[in-house]
Design brief:
Layout (H helix, E strand, L loop, with lengths): L2 H25 L3 H23 L8
Amino acid sequence: MPLPHFLLLVLAVILAAALTLVLAIALGVPLQVLALVTVVAALAAHLSARTGNGPRHTSEG
């Protein structure tokens, strides 16, 4: 991936995270609820990768 594309991807992720925080705060969502949703989503993504739907976490190949 060329460096400019990578940097634009990083910028897009940072802007999406900032927009999410601004909208959550504007809507009155408690930060604890937002943090819990984030942890649950990360756990689901991690478990999905471990069951073979993503990159392997072992050295088996």
